[in-house]
Design a protein that fits this description.
single chain; 3 helices; 24% helix; globular
């Protein structure tokens, strides 16, 4: 049993990037699916596919690399809110990642979204991770 499935998701992606893998398979959950959709919409991953073959299902994530330099689109992926210490941010103190160049992924009452979308919708939430 995994106590922090989001940290496991981020670690699997991080390890796949360090090993220069093209595709990484991750056990699925609804929150992980939403995080994957946000990463795809913001251009950090090339593609994704949800497979429901097993009872839990699998997320297949195709990682994105620069064709010339072979450097990943994701430079850093860090977990912010942990099961032992939850981090929340309101609209007035929304985090800025790399002075606006990166994104913070938040879990809000309106769903999973980036810090910019949450600020636009005037809503706060739990800061799940930073991506840049």
């Amino acid at each position: 049993m995994n106590t922090d499935p989001i940290a496991d998701y981020l670690t699997r992606v991080r390890n796949a990037i360090k090993a220069n893998h093209r595709v990484v398979e991750i056990p699925a959950s609804n929150l992980k699916k939403e995080i994957t959709k946000v990463l795809f919409d913001k251009g950090y991953i090339a593609n994704y596919k949800f497979e429901d073959t097993l009872p839990q299902g699998i997320i297949k994530v195709a990682l994105k690399y620069n064709p010339v330099t072979k450097i990943s689109a994701i430079r850093n992926l860090s977990r912010i809110s942990t099961p032992g210490l939850r981090r929340y941010a309101g609209v007035e103190n929304m985090p800025r990642v790399l002075n606006g160049l990166g994104i913070a992924i938040l879990s809000t009452s309106k769903g999973v979204m980036t810090d910019k979308e949450a600020k636009k919708n005037n809503i706060g939430g739990e800061v799940l991770c930073y991506v840049y």
